[in-house]
Amino acid sequence: MIRLSVDIGGTFTDTVLDVDGHLFTSKVLTTPAQPERGALSGIEAALADAGVAVADIGVFIHGTTLATNAVIERKGARTAMITTEGFRDIVDSAYESRHNQYDLMISKTRPLVERNLRFTVAERIDRDGKVVRPLDEASVAPLARLLEEREIESVAVCFLQSYRNPAHEMRVRELLLRHLPGLSVSLSSVVCPEIREYERFTTATVNAYVQPIMARYLTRLESLLRQRGLGAPIFLVTSAGGLMSLRQAVDFPVRLLESGPAGGVVLASRIAAECSVGEAISFDMGGTTAKFALIKDSRPVTSRTFEVDRQDSYIKGSGLPIRIPVIELVEIGAGGGSIAHMDKLGRVATGPESAAAEPGPAAYGRGSTRPTVTDADIVLGRIDAERFAGGQIRLDVAAAREALDRDIAGPMSLTTELAAFAVSDVVDEMMANAGRRYAAERGKNLETHSMIAFGGAAPLHASRLARKLGVREVIVPKGAGVGSAIGFLGAPVSFEAVKTHFMRLDRFDETVANALLDEMARDAHAFVDIHVGGGAVVERRSAMMRYVGQGHELSVLLPDRPLEAADVDPLRASFERIYSAANFVAIPDAPIEIIDWSVTVGAEPAAVSPIDQTPARSPAKPFAVASVFDVDSNRTEEVPTYWRPDLVPGSALAGPALVTESHTTTFVDRGYVAEVLANGYLRLQRIEPAPGDQP
């Protein structure tokens, strides 16, 4: 089967075409105004390189950051919210706390729906799902007229306790569509059928906010591909690293918020398995952002909630909480396009503002005069200007130098090269701070981890970042510059159904529990079985449990059979073991309750065989030399440059050196040796202390 994947990022659109295991790739600039144009351009380039037609493609897999960017940039649809009378300010009051208690100038994330577009309806359902106050249907028709007058494109219906009884939300949708048939309507009971109204309301409003723009984009893309002869199914990568159909993506675009980064972590997890790495941290640096994710035993750390549009990149609670299945990762505004500037204290700073694809870094020659991290890397000599982005983008080195001289070197009285190094080192330290905090919050010591680096800019910065983090080994996979798109090809078709239903273990009712789980399993299988086409699937059931009275839950795996009364004690033991691992102590004899139930159904993942990591070593032969600035000697030095496709398993080299390929360059810093593993991966290992090493 010929498989195609496309990853649309903030700066570049990456395409990977898999023809019988041989990968054809392309990297083109993203076209923000019409993202499908960039996608089609990349697809056409890869198809032409492979000599195949669109009609030959057997499956198309797509991932994009468009939904996330719409939320962060506040460029979504004009959205309203309808909620229970008296509760329209829940999205403002949030957790009724401050994410930073001592910040006198604190800035909170604004709700996506302004207060004058939040409307209320008389109705009330209690925690058991019983109707306390019937829905006032007569008030919905005037409300529909008001939505039309205010040119509302999309609406989120968010009633209290609707996760237990969605009848009122469903009736409001029916009445709204009767008057406004073209309106997009997101129900909180469908988007997020779980407790905690703030997270549920926020998740539903985010879905409503991005639904019209994502629906238009995905519909246009599908239409253009079908016109060109695509007959294959189209899948979208979810934030949890699975695949969903295009129709589901149109209905639930909120599940695409971490679509692109999740694909990269899928790739990193497979690499960890192939290289027998027990603990790893994936490092994905593209043109706009940098992402970190922890991997243990070849599986990424997952979560049931995350935040988007954080006002403080490092502090939990400073963004909009989204309650969906997600691969847990941290993302900061540090990419090749991050703009370098002097802050108010006269220090070099980078980001979070990005030059993105338009106009891009100064060296792109597309009108920008502001220096970026990419411009700094060019001046440092770490980027081959002739082969950048597969030779599709010609770099203007003089423009990069001029931008750095004007904005950084001049104000600081530095040489151009020192200014470039300052920009590069500042972004490295900013990423290191994010990685340290991310690991510390989860009780991890990164010195025991391997780093898996991919993305257009990650291999350039990986060795110096690893040194700052105390990581001694870096693995750079083949095709690292388009790593997330390669990861898409390994994502399984999957579906997770989640539902809130309170049940204490000391009052366990296996009949109710089994009925609930079976209903959820039917929903999950209904989607997966269609798209897997008779292949093997895996079903995983779990329960979110906590001590009665606590505010947070832990996931406990359930038996892969119907539950029995005798399962109570094993479930208690499993919960207490997990609780003790997270909190160092369990609470003896305390009552335990189940809050949420989850059923995940997915295609059987492909088996991964560990590779031979000790091929016979032989010195690699450089094809050229490059002039690279060395900060320790404060001068430019000639370093060997290797063309990665020429390197064979066992090829070894010592830093400083450059290993270039079509869509990225790996900078091997001084004090590192690099070797090519049996599967073509490049492994960098630190062999001696060097300036800048952590004590």
Note down, in words, how this protein is organized:
By secondary structure, the protein is α/β, with parallel strands linked by helices. It folds into six domains: 2-71 and 218-256, ATPase, nucleotide binding domain (Nucleotidyltransferase, domain 5), CATH 3.30.420; 76-214, Dna Topoisomerase Vi A Subunit, Chain: A, domain 2, CATH 3.40.1360; 276-334 and 426-488, 2-Layer Sandwich (Nucleotidyltransferase, domain 5), CATH 3.30.420.40; 358-423, no CATH class; 494-603, Dna Ligase, domain 1; 618-686, no CATH class. Helices cover 31% and strands 27% of the residues. The protein is built from 16 helices and 36 strands. The strands form nine sheets. Strands 13, 14, 15, 20, 23, 24, 29, 32, 35 and 36 form a ten-stranded mixed sheet that branches. A six-stranded mixed sheet has the order 3-2-1-4-11-12. Helix 4 (140-149) packs across helix 5 (167-179), helix 10 packs across helix 12 (416-441) and helix 11 (397-412) crosses helix 12 (416-441). It is globular. The protein starts with a strand and ends in a 9-residue tail after the last strand. The mean pLDDT is 91.
| Principal-axes shape call | globular
Instruction: Kindly provide the radius of gyration, computed on alpha-carbon positions and rounded to a whole number of angstroms.
Output: 26 Å
Largest sheet: 10 strands, mixed
Number of separate domains: 6
Mean pLDDT: 91
Q: Write the CATH architecture name of the largest domain.
A: 3-Layer(aba) Sandwich
CATH class of the largest domain: Alpha Beta
Q: Pairing-aware structural class of the strands and helices? A: alpha/beta
Classify the helix fraction into a percent range. Answer: 25-40%
What is the strand tally? 36
State the low-pLDDT regions, or none: none
β-sheet strand percentage: 25-35%
